Structures are given as structure tokens and as C-alpha cells.
Model the fold of this input.
Amino acid sequence: MDIEVTEVERSIAKWVREGKTTSLWGEYTIRRVARGLLSTLRDFGVLAGAVNKRLAPAYLPIEAFAYVTFYLKQRQPSGAKLIDLPDWKLFFLPPEGVERLLVEAHQQGLLEYHAAGTVTRLTFPPNSLEDYAYVLAETAH
Done:
């Protein structure tokens, strides 16, 4: 979760060595670009922290989470495997965060989520994505 400027500098230096920049960059340029990149990511809310940067938690409304979950469930029927899908990285969600939001969505009646050991059951009130969008819209009012 923590991002060190030296990590970013190493990645940029590697890209320079691989010829991914228009010219060779010196250490000073690499350091300035790395710091500028981290500052820009902070300004856009991807990172948090003035000096020590870390991934900022992404706010994902529970209705949006439930909708994304319904969509992903169509591609991955296994509830246990769905929790570990790399798609959740788009929202900076580790599997524990996905499970926490599943419990919250269950408590709000947006879906049914039951887990016992390695067995996970995940069901939704409607059968189609369009119908579920309607259910979520009605719930929000």
C-alpha cells in the first residue's frame, strides 16, 4: 500500500534503459519525473499522503459495487473465485475488501451472500443485468 519514490525511480530507470523514453535520462531527471508522477497521482486522488505516499482508498458506492458484482458473477459463477478476480484491482480492492462489501450489500438486501469456510453462495434477486439495474435504482430512492 505504501509507495516509495525509490521504487518509482527504479521503474523509470528501467524504462530508460529499455529505450522507452525519447532520450537517455540522468538521475536528476528520473528523480524529478518520479516525484512529479507521485504528486500528480496524489492530486488525482489515486495516492494519499504529502510525504509518504500510499494508495488512497477508492470510494465505491454499495449500489455500484453490487452492480459490478452482478456483472462479474455472469462471467465467474463461483462466488469464491469471484472474490479473487483481478478485476477488483481497478477499485484497489483486496479480497478482504470485496468480502466486506459483499457483507454490507447483503445487509442492505442488494444480494444474498453466505460464506462458510471454503463454500461461498452468492445470489441476486433478478436474473438479468437490466433488471438488477432497475432494482438498484429503486433501492436508491
